[in-house]
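FORM 7B: Structural annotation worksheet

SECTION A. Query
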Amino acid sequence: MGMQAKPRPAATPEQALSAMDHLIATHLVGQHEIAQQVGLSVTDLTCFAYVIEAGENLPTAGDLAARVHVTTGAVTGILNRLERAGYITRLPDPTDRRRIRVAARPEAVARVREVYEPYYARLAELFADYSPDEIAVLNDWFTRASALAANYLEEHCRPD
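SECTION B. Predicted structure
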């Protein structure tokens, strides 16, 4: 489309870090409010979001424990609550009957999407304001910062 990068206001790494902190803080509050709207805790909603994200590749309880940075014992509690609330079903792994896979219930996915979709539509509009090169930089930064955060949590907040 030949979208030109627009002139952006200059910023220091410190200003960018501060802007990131504001986004994350707003997101944390927002996650809490959205979780309340759908009747879940933030941890349960986060766990459910990972189940949705996994799509056809149904995650195991262990996969979810690793993603959400909680113990497998804690995941059992989360899955019990999600199952009771009608968000997930547990299915035996076809290759290993002892292993349980977690599937999202379609009506629950629809309920959560309804809450998130208007927000993501606005974010999509915001991304449309950036050139492909700028989006590549944003994606690279988000991806690497996520890995850095996950590694830091592994090192400093291991749930044993």
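SECTION C. Observations
Strands lie at 88-92, 100-104. The chain is about 65% helix and 5% strand.

SECTION D. Sign-off
Analyst initials: ____
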